[in-house]
C-alpha cells in the first residue's frame, strides 16, 4: 500500500500532479473537439497534440524510473497504455478527423482519474 506521504516523496514525478496535467491535456483536446469549425482549429490542434505528446512522454520517463514505487506489472501496463496513446496522437496528427478525438479524451481522462484516486485505491 502506498501512502500519500510516500507519493509525495517519489521524486519529481508525483501521481496526483500528473493527474492534473492529464486532465489539462484532455481539456485541450476537448476544446479542439468543441471548436472544430473555428478558424484557429489548426493552431488549437497543434498545441493540444504537442502538449499531450509531452505529457505522455513524461509518463513514460516516470515509468522508467524503478524508484517510482509502482509494482512492475502496473508500470508495464501504464507503459503499454502510454505507447498506445502516443500512437493515437500520431494517427490523429496525420489524419485530423473529429471522431478520433473522443477516444483520446476518454483515455487521458480515465488515466487521470485513476492516478488521482491512486492513494485511495492503494
Topology:
Blueprint: H1 4-8, H2 15-34, H3 41-64, H4 72-94, H5 101-116, H6 118-121
Structure described in brief:
This protein is 75% helix and 0% strand. It has 122 residues and is mainly α.
Q: CATH fold name, please?
A: Four Helix Bundle (Hemerythrin (Met), subunit A)
Total beta strand runs: 0
Outline: elongated
Secondary-structure element series = HHHHHH
**Helix percentage range:** over 70%
Q: Give the CA-CA distance, first to last residue.
A: 5 Å
Largest sheet: none
- The number of domains is 1
Write down the CATH class.
Mainly Alpha
Strand content range? under 5%
So, CATH architecture? Up-down Bundle
Alpha carbon gyration radius: 15 Å
Mean pLDDT: 80
> Treating each run of at least 4 consecutive H or I residues as one helix, how many helices?
6
User: What is the SS-derived class?
Assistant: mainly alpha
Unreliable spans are: 1-16
Structural notes for this entry:
- With 122 residues, the chain is mainly alpha-helical.
- The termini are close together.
- It has one domain: Four Helix Bundle (Hemerythrin (Met), subunit A) (Up-down Bundle).
- Helix 2 runs antiparallel to helix 5, helix 3 runs antiparallel to helix 4 and helix 4 runs antiparallel to helix 5.
Amino acid at each position: 500500500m502506498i501512502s500519500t506521504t510516500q507519493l509525495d516523496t517519489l521524486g519529481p514525478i508525483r501521481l496526483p500532479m500528473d493527474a492534473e496535467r492529464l486532465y489539462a491535456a484532455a481539456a485541450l483536446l476537448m476544446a479542439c473537439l468543441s471548436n472544430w469549425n473555428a478558424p484557429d482549429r489548426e493552431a488549437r490542434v497543434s498545441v493540444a497534440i504537442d502538449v499531450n505528446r509531452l505529457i505522455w512522454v513524461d509518463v513514460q520517463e516516470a515509468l522508467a524510473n524503478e524508484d517510482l514505487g509502482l509494482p512492475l506489472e502496473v508500470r508495464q501496463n501504464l507503459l503499454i497504455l502510454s505507447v498506445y496513446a502516443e500512437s493515437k496522437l500520431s494517427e490523429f496528427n496525420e489524419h485530423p478527423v473529429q471522431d478520433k478525438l473522443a477516444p483520446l479524451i476518454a483515455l487521458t481522462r480515465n488515466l487521470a482519474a485513476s492516478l488521482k484516486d491512486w492513494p485511495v485505491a492503494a
